């Protein structure tokens, strides 16, 4: 069953630098070295990435010797690959004792819709227990951790506050700290590493889609964010992992400005490079009556609503799609609006900002202003304050503020955040 997945293709932490010397046997990844070799196939597939970019997972010589003889748990999903193989399969083939797998939102196999609860199961081929962290519990229990020596986190993130994998990252770190289990991050690029933008989340609006006082786009890799979680005391009661218990396998040849096309879709509704790039801007519309294309095979690349008929020619009709969106907003209704599938996303990179123009345009075009942010209209609508992270955003849009005026209110928080994150950054 695991192999079926292949096609789906802190402050004070122990930081593992990339070396160009030959590989040597070692008892600790802190002294592991690496051989100079061609980039793995996952890097080769990434035509826009700098030649030589290597993920933490693909640098097996950095951590496999350290894992030998240890009981290993893994927090993974379909984006967790070593070369072209699922990382669980790869480590098993290298003789690593993987005793259990933990799955976040969308499940280990990535076939659960957004927000859908996921059950525990056992892999039929290997017999490895798969424990859901998006069902009855959000973090591993004492019993889950009892037979582990180390827990590995290897999930591709997209660098956005309301993408819930960073919540899982915090939760599993917390379990490791509580139960004296080592924690290792196999770092991966942030496709939005170039951008730090959006209002800082007000604690009064903490929810399942926002649990850290950070902007919408934080511009950090998972390894960097793990450092910040630990260094800032963002675990329960300020709990922290000891220095020797937290290890990061760094990316090789990476910088935050580097364009990066994900070789594997990070989740069912981020199914194209275009959707990944537009996600920080378009996910805000989940707090409005405007569909972002859930219930189509082009989610997060289109915007529309039935009430916009006559104002836009482009249209689409959301339907129930198993594994993506079973009951989307405006299901079986023709929605009219914007087609952003061919939008030049390089404009986002150049400006290093989310696009607020589309929110302003859609609000002006929508005929029933009182319903635009009214989440009582549908269970599929979120609360805009939880997505934006502040109370002011709704009022600013309703009162007709310009994008420049709205952005001005974000600047003090963004400036403070950039300073706050500096000690945790691993890459230029």
UniProtKB/TrEMBL annotation:
InterPro entries: NamZ (IPR008302), NamZ_C (IPR048503), NamZ_N (IPR048502)
PROSITE patterns: PROKAR_LIPOPROTEIN
Signal peptide extent: 1-24
Region feature Disordered, mapped onto this chain: 28-54
Domain Peptidoglycan beta-N-acetylmuramidase NamZ C-terminal: 277-427
Keywords linked to the UniProt accession: Signal
All copies of domain Peptidoglycan beta-N-acetylmuramidase NamZ N-terminal, residue ranges: 72-273
Residue spans of biased composition, Low complexity class: 28-44
One Pfam entry name: NamZ_C
The protein's name in its UniProt record: Exo-beta-N-acetylmuramidase NamZ domain-containing protein
């Amino acid at each position: 069953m695991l192999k079926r997945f292949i096609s789906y293709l802190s402050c004070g932490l122990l930081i593992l630098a990339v070396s160009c010397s030959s590989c040597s046997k070692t008892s600790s990844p802190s002294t592991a070295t690496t051989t100079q070799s061609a980039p793995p196939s996952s890097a080769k597939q990434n035509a826009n990435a700098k030649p030589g970019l290597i993920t933490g997972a693909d640098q097996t010589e950095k951590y496999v010797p350290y894992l030998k003889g240890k009981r290993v748990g893994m927090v993974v999903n379909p984006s967790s690959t070593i070369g072209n193989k699922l990382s669980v399969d790869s480590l098993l083939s290298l003789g690593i004792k993987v005793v259990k797998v933990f799955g976040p939102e969308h499940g280990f196999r990535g076939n659960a819709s957004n927000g859908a609860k996921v059950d525990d199961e056992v892999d039929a081929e290997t017999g490895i227990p798969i424990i859901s962290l998006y069902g009855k519990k959000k973090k591993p229990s004492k019993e889950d951790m009892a037979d582990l020596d180390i827990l590995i986190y290897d999930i591709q993130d997209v660098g956005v506050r309301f993408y819930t994998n960073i919540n899982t990252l915090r939760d599993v770190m917390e379990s490791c700290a509580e139960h004296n289990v080592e924690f290792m991050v196999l770092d991966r690029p942030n496709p939005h590493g170039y951008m730090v933008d959006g209002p800082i989340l007000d604690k009064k609006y903490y929810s399942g889609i926002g649990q850290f006082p950070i902007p919408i786009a934080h511009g950090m890799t998972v390894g960097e964010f793990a450092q910040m979680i630990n260094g800032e005391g963002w675990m329960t009661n300020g709990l922290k992992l000891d220095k020797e218990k937290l290890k990061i396998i760094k990316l090789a040849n990476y910088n935050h400005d580097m364009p990066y096309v994900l070789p594997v879709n990070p989740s069912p509704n981020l199914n194209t490079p275009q959707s990944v790039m537009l996600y920080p801007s378009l996910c805000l519309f989940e707090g409005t009556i405007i569909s972002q294309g859930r219930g189509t095979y082009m989610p997060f690349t289109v915007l529309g609503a039935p009430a916009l008929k006559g104002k836009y020619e482009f249209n689409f009709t959301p339907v129930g799609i198993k594994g993506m969106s079973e009951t989307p907003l405006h299901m079986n209704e023709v929605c009219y609006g914007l087609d952003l599938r061919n939008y030049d996303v390089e404009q986002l990179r150049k400006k290093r900002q989310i696009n607020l123009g589309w929110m302003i345009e859609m609000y002006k075009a929508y005929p029933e202003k009182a319903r635009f942010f009214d989440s009582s209209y549908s269970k599929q609508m979120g609360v805009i304050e939880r997505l934006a992270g502040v109370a002011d955003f709704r009022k600013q849009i309703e009162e007709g503020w310009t994008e420049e005026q709205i952005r001005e209110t974000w600047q003090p928080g963004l400036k403070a955040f950039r300073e706050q994150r500096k000690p945790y950054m691993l890459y230029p």
